[in-house]
Amino acid sequence: METNNRKDPPAHYPSIFIDGLWHNNVALGQMLALCPLLAVTTSATNGLGMGIATLVVMLSANLTASLLRDIVSPQVRIPVFIVLIAAIVTLVEMWLNAWMHELYKILGLFIPLIVTNCAILGRVESFASKQKVLPAVADALAMGLGFIWVLVVVGGFREILGSGTLFAHASLLLGSNFQWLETTIIPDYQGILLLILPPGGFLILGFLLGLKRLVDRFISNKKEQRVTATLHGMTTENSS
Amino acid sequence: MPLSTTTIKRPSYLDRIGYQAGLLAGICAMVSVLILIGYQATHERIAQAFEQDQLNMLAQVLPAHLYNNDLLADARNITALTDAYGDGRLFSAKMDHQATGFAFTLTQEGYSGQIRMIMGLDPEGRILGVRVISHSETPGLGDKIEIAKDPWILSFNGHSLANTPTSDWAVQKDGGQFEAFTGATITPRAVVQAVFDGLNVYARHQHEWLPAPSPPDHESPEQEASNTQTMKQPQAPVPASDRTQRSKETHANGNQ
User: Fold this and answer.
1) Is any Cβ of chain A less than 8 angstroms from the Cβ of B6?
2) Which residue of A101, A181, B178, B187 pairs with B49 in a disulfide if CB–CB is 3.0 to 4.6 A?
3) Which positions ≥6 away from B58 have C-beta within 8 Å?
4) What are the boundaries of each domain within chain B?
């Protein structure tokens, strides 16, 4: 991606967040973490749960990697980081199992797989291990939130088109205060089965990627227009 | 990203192999301690949640007014169930030490992987309820066996080997009396088969299970043999002829 050879001043927070949420988004920009993305997004709630779990792991992993950056030798950094990430995921899994048992039963299998989520090791390796604590945490927050919104959007589309509901069982995840989130968009809906099945994940992700391209092109066109317009203005001024 | 900070002079000990090994070992030790603490903090709650899961499951197939005993404490391991269906736990519902029902889990190969079910029976062998615990059937088609998706699974309630002839224990497509839902035949077929097998296991062993404080489970060798025979049945539903034969043998055993 074009962002790799970017030379930002250290800890430019707005750009960290814009990168995480849009330009260098884990799923839409870096095209990482597609396995959990496609697997769990049969509903918006599942996506949100997976996203939050990933965000927690990312935050803790970036934080510890940044704290340990001066004592970890580059030669053993990968095993050290993997051990740390695996430990964090194990702790998150135990915690979920104990305190959010219903959600754990839904996400169950995919929680341990967060260890292999390349996006987490990717952020630790390319960002957190070279940065101070605060920017590292900000980066994890931005990347995690970026991942969450994509998971929720993909899950939401698949849920609405596939089962006619949105945020079904959200109260299992967020507590009974969030019962109002659970809506039936289309009552007595038979659903487009394809969208609940794995191909549906690919389709929606594809549409989302296309949409991002369109928006990006629209923005850059706008910029170009503005530049040419100002240039044009200058030339007409000169001629007059 | 600042390119400078990482390359500027690193302490030399970072490159020593001893330091690197020690670092890895230290991190692993630290992580182990953390996980141990995490386990200590959560394992009780996890066990509780697991127990609650089991009770919730049982509550769906054994109505609460039927028993006043502790179902989990009174659960027994039964080899006949283990041999045939993997789990092997027999939950006995008792009202003042009088047997009022039984529940056990069943496993059957569905369209894509195993379907785990739990069924509750009253002492006469009538079905109190059947529920699917876990499955990996096609969403939108085969998953109508879940109570959350479709009330189909309730159609077993009240049936027993006595009030439903053997030939009726099949989906309508195969000449039986149970409806198969649109788009899926293999899944309901598997569930019907599993329920039928469960009833047969009960018919064969009810004389051992029924006496309330029953002695530890032991079986005569010939019964063991007939068990393994049913266990080795093909995954696909058995043809009707085979099934009739098997159920005759079942009835013979059950009437002992």
Assistant:
1) yes
2) A101
3) B71, B91, B103, B118, B120
4) 62-254
H-only helix segments in chain B: 4-7, 17-61, 79-85, 186-209, 221-231, 240-254
Rg of chain B taking only CA atoms, in angstroms: 26
Predicted local distance difference test score (pLDDT) of residue B53: 86
Domain residue limits, chain A: 15-181+192-239
CA-CA distances (angstroms) from residue B232 to A118, B52, B73, B85?
44, 33, 31, 11
Quote the CA–CA distance of A89 and A61 in Å, as a whole number: 9
Distance from CA of A228 to the nearest CA of B (A): 32
Which two structure tokens, joined as six digits, stand for A89?
A: 């995921």
The continuous run of DSSP H or E covering A40 comes out as helix A34-40
Cα-to-chain-centroid distance, residue B178: 22
Report whether pLDDT(A89) > 60.
yes
Asked if the C-beta of A75 comes within 8 angstroms of chain B's C-beta atoms, the answer is yes
Instruction: Name which of B9, B12, B20 to mutate to probe chain A: the one with the most chain A Cβ atoms within 10 A of its Cβ.
Output: B20
Cβ of residue B65 closer than 8 Å to a chain A Cβ? no
- B225 part of contact set with chain A, CB < 8 Å: no
pLDDT of residue A114: 87
Q: How far is CA A209 from CA A148, B184, B207, B245, in A?
A: 15, 34, 64, 60
Percent of all residues in chain A with a pLDDT value above 90, rounded to a whole number? 33
Q: Do B20 and A73 touch (CB under 8 A)?
A: yes
Q: How confident is the model over A53-67, as pLDDT tens digits?
A: 999 999 999 999 999
Residue B33 at interface with chain A, using a CB cutoff of 8 Å:
no
> Do residue A76 and residue B20 have CB atoms under 8 angstroms apart?
yes
Residue B9: count of CB within 10 angstroms of its CB: 5
pLDDT less than 70: residues of chain B: 1-9, 83-86, 211-256
- Model pLDDT, residue B216: 47
Predicted pLDDT at A1: 39
Q: Is B72 within 8 Å of chain A by CB?
A: no
B177 phi and psi angles, rounded to 5 deg: -110, 0
**What is the predicted pLDDT for the residue at B135?**
85
Which pLDDT value is given to residue A66? Answer: 93
Beta carbons of A97 and B140 less than 8 Å apart: no
Partner-chain contact B1 A76, CB within 8 Å = no
Q: Which of chain B's residues have a Cβ under 8 Å away from the Cβ of A130?
A: 1-2, 5-6
Specify the pLDDT at position A7.
43
